[in-house]
Amino acid sequence: MTNYLARRVLGVVVVMFAVLTGLFLLLHASPVSPVNQLAPQVAADPVARAAVEHRMGLDRPLVTQYLDYVGDALRGDLGTSLYDGTSVADQIGRALPVSLELGLIASVFAVIPAVVLGAWSVLRRGGAVDHGTRVLTVLAMSLPGYWLAVVALVVVGDSHPDLLPNAGGFVTFGEDPAANLRVLVLPAIVLGLATFAMLTRSLRGGLADAMASDHAMFARAMGGSRLLTLRRVALRGALVPTLTVAGVLIGGLLSGTVLIENVFQIPGIGQLMVTAFQRQDYPLALGACVATSAIFLLLNLGVDLLYPLVDPRTAAGVTGDLAGRTA
């Protein structure tokens, strides 16, 4: 198990290094430059442009810039913003908790209804609940998130302001916890809707297959009810693949809030990332991308480590696989 943990952690480190390298090269290969944001009279002057590039360190060889950035990043220093000179790490530190809170609330709205509806549809397979679940999940996956966010903001935030006060604005948790939660309810529902639909369909499919397995059929033949068989036999078999899907989707909720944050004007890391790209602020854009990638990878690492806990057969498979390789 220790070797399995070490391999997974090493895999995350390698992927994180590859992501950082890829993002760094893509940003510097693009034709945009923060120098283009200078005043026209400065941008048009080659001498002035060269002086600004030298001051920003952009005239150094790309390899030197890359090695310096990686070395600083390993020490927790993501550089300073080219726009206002503030610390990138500080800006990410202020925006990241907001995105994590939004993603966490969206995960609650997505996971709990998905588990209830997925299990209920299997227990009522072929009935009205099952058919209704299929239609609802297809509809939820078909709605474009950006369009739904705009419509929800207009209908709920504008036409029914009493239902969700401050919709379209933001209040920090420290200022007013109740108002903070009310503000995040609407974007969290919009953000988690597609995840809810995909999780429901994944869990329903997994449970339906598990209920048709020999173990579940034997449990039913021994007099077990459908609910008892689902809870004690089928759920264990369906939990591992569903956990894999949930890890990817929830990772997207916690790190992929760019559109929702910009529509609802939530000062999270998604909005920070868009602002950085609009200003062609290399260090801030790169730092925000690296932070979201790290969250996604760490969350999936956590999901991998949960496998042996939710299903002991997975732990046996892991240790057996390792034993077979070392034999």
From TrEMBL:
Protein name as it appears in the record: ABC transmembrane type-1 domain-containing protein
Sorted UniProt keywords: Cell membrane, Membrane, Transmembrane, Transmembrane helix, Transport
Originating species: Embleya scabrispora
Domain of life: Bacteria
Domain (ABC transmembrane type-1) ranges: 96-307
Keyword Transmembrane helix among UniProt keywords: yes
Pfam annotation, one family: BPD_transp_1
Membrane-spanning segments: 9-29, 102-123, 135-157, 177-199, 233-254, 282-303
Leader sequence residues: none
